[in-house]
Amino acid sequence: MTYGAGMDLTGKVALVTGAARGLGRAMAVALARAGCDLAVSDIAQSGDGATPYALSSRDDLAETVRAVEQLGRRAVGTPCDVTVAADVAKLMAFVEEQLGGLDVLIGNAGIVAARRWRRWTRRCGTASST
Ligand SMILES: NC(=O)c1ccc[n+]([C@@H]2O[C@H](COP(=O)([O-])OP(=O)(O)OC[C@H]3O[C@@H](n4cnc5c(N)ncnc54)[C@H](O)[C@@H]3O)[C@@H](O)[C@H]2O)c1
Q: Is residue 129 domain-resident?
């Protein structure tokens, strides 16, 4: 199946966070196929050991930009840690400046941290019978 082929979003501008690989890159490519110009961002620093697995690099983010451009759409990429408010403000200004506005936002950035449910609910103060 070719995702994005059935939608017509010609002329729209989309922003995908966490777009350097995985689902984020796939959604950026699908939106480009549907006609969007793309802003893509990612933390783009392979990791300081604080996360349970390595995050993406600037090269990964550049590869997403290339994949969108190969579909004939505009693509701009910039690093952004979505947990840092100042980074997000800069990202929004960058999108406005480079692409003139925003129609579609995919907040995809994130990690999966496997934790034992009981310990997590205790730490959050949530009652749990498990
Ligand atoms: N793949 C799954 O089965 C699954 C299941 C449930 C939820 N999700 C969620 O979907 C999203 C994408 O999953 P994926 O499998 O493509 O993961 P992935 O790890 O391949 O991609 C996530 C991207 O987000 C980036 N990222 C992480 N923290 C960031 C931050 N603070 N700021 C900016 N970028 C950041 C990473 O560098 C990476 O490029 C994630 O949010 C994940 O938690 C995925």
A: no
Q: Pocket residues for ligand 1 (CB within 6 Å)?
A: 17-18, 20-24, 42-43, 55-56, 80-83, 108-112
Q: Whose CA is nearest to atom 7 of ligand 1?
A: 112
23 alpha carbon to ligand 1 midpoint, in Å?
7
pTM summary value:
0.88
Q: What is the CATH number of the domain that holds 95?
A: 3.40.50.720
Number of domains in the chain: 1
Q: How far is CA 50 from CA 3, 23, 86, 114, in A?
A: 33, 22, 20, 14
Segment 19-56, tens digit of pLDDT: 999 999 999 999 999 999 999 999 988 766 778 888 99
| Residue-number span of the structural domain to which 70 is assigned | 2-124
